[in-house]
Amino acid sequence: MMISTLFKRISLINLLPRLLQRNISYVERVRFLQQLKEQDTVCSSHIPGGKFLLYSQSKPLIHVDKANTEDVLLWLTYSEVTEYYPQVLSSSVLVDVNEDGTPRYSVQVGALPTTTQDKLESATGAVFTDLRLALFMVSWRDAHTLSRANNVLMWNKNNAFCGKCGAPTARNAAGYARKCKSCNTTHYPSSIPVGIVLVTDPSHESIVLVRQPRHPPGMYSCIAGFSEVGETLEETVHREVAEEVGIEVSSVRYVASQHWPFPGSLMAGCFAVAEKQQLTKDNNELQDARWFSRDEVSTALDKINANPHLRLRGNPSGELFIPPPGAIAYHLIAHWIKGTPVQEIYQHIY
Prior knowledge:
six-stranded mixed beta sheet, 23% strand, 15 strands
């Protein structure tokens, strides 16, 4: 055990000089991230030199005026954060390691006093923003960062007690593990798998889109549902389509995935084919479900591209639009319109 610990320390010492350089390799970042997750002393020692993304009641502090640019997320230094919220060491969780080797953390500051929040927002030019709104204001990669950061914070909040024996748990420095103080069971954060599918007819001239009651006026999206215990992704897709619109699909093909913070899901995007037939929607789940032609979908795509904020307030006319680029449903629909080969869609998204 002592030899193993010694080797880990030597490995870290050898790695640190390279971490001070800009644009370290992906492998170096991953291995450093793993050390931060597993070794409390290493993680804690890097917190003062890290960068921090702030949340107040799951609302990230972001530059709203820089929406749809690469500068939306606001990363503060340790000294900048402690000026407004001194409890950084006990309330921050690890997010990732930046390309320059800097560890990045997220901090839940809770409900700050109004005067403190006003001062912080004024000093930074940023605003604590509803998470769902923020996800549609940032790039695809930054959306994943916002989602992951919030979910690790929420996981720690919701797992203060052991699910096995009910005793209190203690978190590690990175916030990626909690150990029960009684039975010593270690708990780790995880994602909930969801299948989301774009159903097309065999000629690829029409697709199925659905409306849930919570959708804003005019918005339709892809069929989606949680995987059940023991299901494969393909089985999830088959079952969800059958349940929601009453048809059977074939040739399910995986496309790409996305983490989504409501409620901490891994959205696995797929294409599937079904004979064009009358739909029988599940009235408990859906408000509407229809086949839409390529022309109708192309117009809906143009609408959301011209005005991504339709997702937030809806289309007063009730005319069809789809989710904006922050959602994987957008990319499934957009690349179907473009005719992008399935094996190439991933590289276009990322």
